[in-house]
Amino acid sequence: APDDLMEMGQRLKSGNTCTVQQIEWTGREMVLKRYNPKSVFYQIMHYFMHSRAMLSWMNGILLCRIGIPSVMPLAVVEEYRFGLLNRAYFLMEHFEGEDIRGYLNAQKHRSEIFDQSINIISSLFKRLRRFRIIHGDLKSKNILINESGLRLIDVDGLRFFVPARRFSRLFRTDFERFLDNWSDQPSLRKTLRSRFSDILTPKK
């Protein structure tokens, strides 16, 4: 009864596409994401495709297995009506972190923590490059971080092992999208681009 769980805890997001709730269940802090019903036409067009909830589940498991920090998937539920997907739910661990933009802005004058954060983020990008993974939407709220580490979230659109030639272009786009989180802070954006100079052109 996932909708019963949706009535618990704290609402993190309400929208037409999905609803996100932070809950405490069986003594653990979790996040439950419900993908709301789409039109019948949409359901028919995506009949042979995995739901976003199932993709989040599968991609999250794969990320954890190859050492890329993501929230731990806990459960996935799909509800069908007349053979078509109606609603889907994705249950994941809760990570107590701040979005990457807010966190780096707060730490930019604390050199030790700022440098530590840069190293953690750099490690993430290097792992993504190693496995030729494209996220596609690296806005700040999709990277959560605290002093102990970070988590990559909203991973239903990930593409793994993208062909090398195409990967280089898409990876640069991902990286530039990441830097766009500081488009209104040119000085900090320039600093970040400099600190991550080896991400796009790694040393041989």
Topology readout:
Blueprint: H1 2-6, E1 10-14, E2 18-25, E3 28-35, H2 40-45, H3 52-65, E4 73-81, E5 84-93, E6 98-99, H4 100-107, H5 111-130, E7 143-146, E8 149-152, H6 164-179, H7 186-195, H8 197-200
Antiparallel strand pairs: 1-2, 2-3, 3-5, 4-5, 6-7, 7-8
Task: Please explain how this structure is put together.
- The protein is α+β, with helices and mostly antiparallel strands and 204 residues long.
- It has helices spanning 2-6, 40-45, 52-65, 100-107, 111-130, 164-179, 186-195, 197-200; strands at residues 10-14, 18-25, 28-35, 73-81, 84-93, 98-99, 143-146, 149-152.
- It has a 5-stranded antiparallel beta sheet. It has a 3-stranded antiparallel beta sheet with strand order 6-7-8.
- β1 and β2 (18-25) form a beta hairpin.
- The termini are far apart.
- The model has no long low-confidence stretch (mean pLDDT 89).
Counted by DSSP, the helix tally is 8
The amount of beta strand, in percent, is: 15-25%
The beta-strand count equals 8
Shape: globular
Structural class: alpha+beta
Largest sheet: 5 strands, antiparallel
Q: Unreliable segments (pLDDT under 50, ≥5 consecutive)? A: none
The SSE string, one letter per element, is HEEEHHEEEHHEEHHH
Radius of gyration based on Cα positions: 18 Å
Q: Could you tell me the mean pLDDT? A: 89
The percent of residues in helical segments reads 40-55%
Span of the ends, CA to CA: 53 Å
Side by side, the strands of the main sheet go 1-2-3-5-4
